[in-house]
Structure formats: structure tokens, C-alpha cells
């Protein structure tokens, strides 16, 4: 029988997750019924008549905040340089997104996603390509900077990739979050090796990381490693196909799914806690958690499986078009229109598909008295 690595000092840049003990830890071994972790919701910038719908932008955030307040969940809005549109926003519009958010929500913390700009003619990684967006973000306080993956950064071997993150971190004056993806989200992306995660988790400027995967449960690997080694580093699940796992483990979510399902997700976070948990808002009276949460998990997962369904290219990137249709159907934004340059679009029948997708969620909201999802 192969001996599994359990000491991080034994990791090498070539170590695979399957060679470590953390790849073989079951979800049930690290379940947490006492911690209500934050919900980081990647806001959508809606459009109307080919222009940003700023009223709809603020309304969608207030809708999420109302759900979070009702269930005692910490909401942190995520304002990526794409706000749902794969970096179609130029620097000036992105700066305006941040300014308008701060003006509308002066005390709210936000996470800002940044990536490399101006790489079209590059043939190798250049850390300074991240500087433009970092400088825009760090004009604001009470925020965290998420270093989103980019093609040339992702192409580096593990040791050089670590050095690149450390180089970018030299510019951070706000807390940093690192970001990993797999090919289902962008075709050139690769998740972190265990050695790389260990190296990044030790950096004093990185408070956590986001991982989105479909083919392997890397978030579970991250969670097992960080808990076992008591790392001061919070894994954030960015997997909109596996939201329940983060809730069960008492770990943060950093997802676009909250933009279409915030009331359901916030309710589930509270229902999962046992009555004695300090953050529990609605007790069961039994001392235990509300087992109806399992059906709620199924309800919002069936919704998000449709919102984030894979297209013919095996990509989930058109999710924002689906999200816009849901927000429009709920009366939160005026139009399901996308960014005028967006090429990741759903078909002409998407409004009907999303009406069908929310049906089960609305039924559960009615049964459980969850406000804000078609229920007053």
C-alpha cells in the first residue's frame, strides 16, 4: 500500500494530490454544524439599451443583502473586472463600477477581482500586467484583492508560478486572495498542485483562495489540508455546482450563484447550523440542525445546474446571460440584456428555460417561508 504524504515538508512541486492524505478525506470527516462562513457573491453588472443599468446593479446587490441580513449571513460583494462578462469592461468602466458601489454602499466590504491587462502580444508572464487593476482597486479601503488566474501566469511551472504570485503580492496593500480554475471554466486553466497551495497559504498577504473545479473535488482537498495543518488561510469554494459542500464544511463561498439564488443559499447556511451555534438565526427547538436543508440543497443545486450548464464548448461561461434572465423574471432588473461585446450567450428560449429552472426553488421558498424568491 502506498504511503500517503501528511507532512507538508515532504511535498515537492511534482507531488500530485492523490499522493497526499488530503485527497482521501471524506466530506463527512470535516463537517461543521457550528460555523456560518461568509457568502461572497460575484455581482452581475446588468445592461439596458447597451449601457450599464446602474439602478439594476444596486438593486440586485440590495436584494442579496436583504437575504443575508434576514438569515444573519455576512455578505461580501465580489466586483470582478468582468462583473460577469469575461473582462469586457475596460479600465475606466471598471473603476466606475467600484466608485458607484462605494458611493451606494459606503460601509460594505467588497472583493475585487483583478487579472493581467494588455497581454495580447506577450510571449511570457509579466507581473506588471496585474498592476493596472490592482492600483484601481486599492484606491478604496475595506476590500480584498483577488488575483484571478491569467493565461501566462497559469502556464508557469509550480515554482515559478509561486514566485509570480509573490511578485504580484509586493504591490498589495489590501488582503489578497489567490484564484485557481480548471479547463471547464477557461480552456487553459489548471488547479494548484498541493505544494503550490501550501506555498501560497503561507504568504502573509494571502488570506485565502478560491478554487473552481468540475472534474475533481479540489475544494475538498484544500479544505482538508487547511484544516489539518491549521493554516491561517480560508479556502473559498468557487464551484457553483457544489455549493452545499462549502456550507457543510463551514467554509466561505465565492460564487456567481448567489446573484440568482441568494435567499435559498442564505437560508441553507442558517438551517445547517445546530441550535447551539452562536450565529444561528432561526432555531429548530430541538438543539439540532434543520434536516429539511437537504431538500433545499437539492432545490438550489437544480437551479444552478441550469444557470451554469455547460454549452457545446463544454464551458459554463454563459451563466451571466442566464443570471440576467432570472433577475429580470424576479423583477429586480429591467432587462436581461448582456454586455454589448459579450459573446457567451444563451439561446432565444432562455427566458422560458430560466422560468422552469426557478420553479423548484420557488416551491421550496414557499414551503420554508424564505422571503425574496418569489415569496413576500
From TrEMBL:
One of its GO terms (molecular function) is lyase activity. This is Dihydrodipicolinate synthetase. SUPFAM superfamilies: Aldolase. It comes from Chthoniobacter flavus Ellin428. SMART domains: DHDPS (SM01130). Keywords: Lyase. The keyword Lyase applies. InterPro entries: Aldolase_TIM, DapA-like. Coiled coil: none annotated.
Amino acid at each position: 500500500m502506498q504511503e500517503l504524504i501528511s507532512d507538508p515538508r515532504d511535498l515537492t512541486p511534482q507531488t500530485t494530490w492523490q499522493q497526499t492524505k488530503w485527497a482521501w478525506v471524506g466530506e463527512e470527516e470535516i463537517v461543521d454544524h457550528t460555523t456560518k462562513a461568509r457568502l461572497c457573491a460575484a455581482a452581475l453588472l446588468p445592461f439596458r439599451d447597451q449601457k450599464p443599468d446602474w439602478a439594476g446593479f444596486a438593486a440586485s446587490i440590495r436584494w442579496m443583502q436583504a437575504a443575508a441580513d434576514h438569515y444573519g449571513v455576512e455578505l461580501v460583494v465580489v466586483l470582478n473586472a468582468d462583473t460577469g462578462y469575461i473582462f469586457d469592461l475596460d479600465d475606466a468602466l471598471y473603476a466606475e463600477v467600484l466608485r458607484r458601489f462605494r458611493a451606494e454602499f459606503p460601509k460594505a466590504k467588497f472583493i475585487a477581482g483583478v487579472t493581467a491587462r494588455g497581454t495580447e502580444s506577450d510571449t511570457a508572464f509579466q507581473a506588471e500586467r496585474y498592476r493596472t487593476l490592482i492600483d484601481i482597486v486599492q484606491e478604496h479601503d475595506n476590500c480584498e484583492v483577488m488575483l484571478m488566474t491569467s493565461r501566462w501566469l497559469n502556464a508557469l511551472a509550480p515554482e515559478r508560478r509561486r514566485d509570480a504570485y509573490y511578485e504580484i503580492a509586493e504591490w498589495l496593500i489590501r488582503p489578497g486572495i489567490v484564484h485557481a480554475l480548471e479547463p471547464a471554466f477557461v480552456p487553459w486553466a489548471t488547479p494548484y498542485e498541493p505544494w503550490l497551495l501550501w506555498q501560497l497559504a503561507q504568504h502573509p498577504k494571502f488570506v485565502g483562495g478560491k478554487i473552481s473545479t468540475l472534474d475533481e473535488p479540489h475544494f475538498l482537498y484544500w479544505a482538508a489540508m487547511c484544516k489539518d495543518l491549521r493554516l491561517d488561510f480560508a479556502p473559498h469554494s468557487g464551484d457553483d455546482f457544489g455549493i452545499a459542500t462549502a456550507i457543510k464544511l463551514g467554509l466561505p463561498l465565492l460564487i456567481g450563484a448567489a446573484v440568482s439564488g441568494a435567499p435559498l443559499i442564505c437560508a441553507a447556511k442558517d438551517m445547517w447550523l445546530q441550535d447551539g451555534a452562536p450565529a444561528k438565526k432561526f432555531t429548530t427547538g430541538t438543539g439540532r440542525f434543520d434536516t429539511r436543508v437537504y431538500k433545499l440543497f437539492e432545490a438550489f443545486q437544480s437551479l444552478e445546474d441550469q444557470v451554469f450548464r455547460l454549452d457545446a464548448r463544454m464551458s459554463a461561461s454563459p451563466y451571466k446571460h442566464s443570471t440576467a434572465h432570472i433577475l429580470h423574471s424576479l423583477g429586480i432588473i429591467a432587462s436581461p440584456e448582456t454586455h454589448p461585446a459579450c459573446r457567451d450567450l444563451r439561446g432565444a428560449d432562455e427566458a422560458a428555460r430560466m422560468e422552469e429552472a426557478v420553479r423548484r426553488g420557488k416551491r421550496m421558498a414557499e414551503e420554508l417561508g424564505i422571503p425574496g424568491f418569489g415569496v413576500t
